[in-house]
Amino acid sequence: MFILLCAGCFAQTTFEQANSAYADGNFALAAELYDSLLVVAPSAEVYYNLGNAYFRQGEIAKSILNYERALRLKPNYKDARYNLAFAQNQIVDNIEDNSSFFVSQWIKSLRNLFSERTWQILSLAFFLIVLIATFLFAFASSTAWRKIGFHTAWVMLLCAVISVSFTASLHNRDVNREEAIVMQGIVNVKASPDRSGTDLFTLHEGTKVYVKSTVGDWAEITVGNNKGWIKLSNIERI
Question: Three-state SS for 94?
Answer without folding.
Answer: coil
